[in-house]
Write a structure and sequence with these properties.
Pfam families: Acetyltransf_3. This is GNAT family N-acetyltransferase. It is a single chain. The protein is of the alpha+beta class. It is built from 6 helices and 8 strands, in the order ββαααβββαβαββα. The protein has a single domain, classed as Aminopeptidase, CATH 3.40.630. α1 packs across α3.
Length: 179
């Protein structure tokens, strides 16, 4: 895993998720917020979290050089959430996502980690645009996505889901100006 980029901010380390992060993945995937706004991934044990990481996160990391990242607070080395760049079925292009354990919400960590990952997407991974999706009733995610500089493009659907998702986009030129 050492070949993949670890990112940093003043308060956070942002490293590619590995099977060593299965405890965080298990906790995150089972929070009410995750289940309501992202969906139940049926990860009901640490063993299932390891399998999810091996089958859904690591293949994209190996193929594209980026995927899901574990966010670690520098002050105490606690794993507090995740951010990621995803080649998600149903979204044309790469989209950014974020999720944090409830006790670390409303502290600016999601914005700080997502902004750093967005910077890496354009500067390190040489992507030209990034998208984001969120459910229509997830107002806090919409505010964060807009604070990151993404603009509402419309709506989209995802495979095997009936919900309509809001679709946002930012291009490298808009990100350069917003920096």
């Amino acid at each position: 895993m050492n070949d993949y980029k670890t990112l940093e901010t003043d308060r956070l380390l942002i490293k590619p998720t590995t099977t060593n992060d299965a405890d965080l993945v298990y906790k995150l995937f089972n929070t009410p917020h995750w289940i309501r706004y992202i969906g139940d991934r049926k990860v009901k044990s640490i063993k299932a979290a390891v399998a999810y990481i091996e089958n859904s996160m690591l293949p994209q990391l190996k193929e594209l050089g980026y995927s899901n990242y574990t966010v670690i607070r520098k002050s105490d080395q606690i794993k507090i959430g995740s951010v990621g760049l995803y080649d998600r079925e149903g979204v044309e292009g790469i989209d950014i996502g974020f999720a944090f354990l409830p006790e670390y919400g409303k502290k600016g960590y999601a914005f700080e980690a997502s902004k750093r990952l967005l910077q890496a997407a354009f500067e390190d991974f040489k992507l030209k645009e990034i998208k984001a999706i969120t459910k229509k009733d997830n107002i806090s995610s919409q505010k964060l996505i807009e604070k990151l500089g993404l603009k509402l493009e419309g709506t989209t659907g995802l495979p095997n889901e009936t919900a309509e998702w809001l679709l946002y986009k930012i291009e490298i030129t808009a990100f350069s100006i917003a920096k």
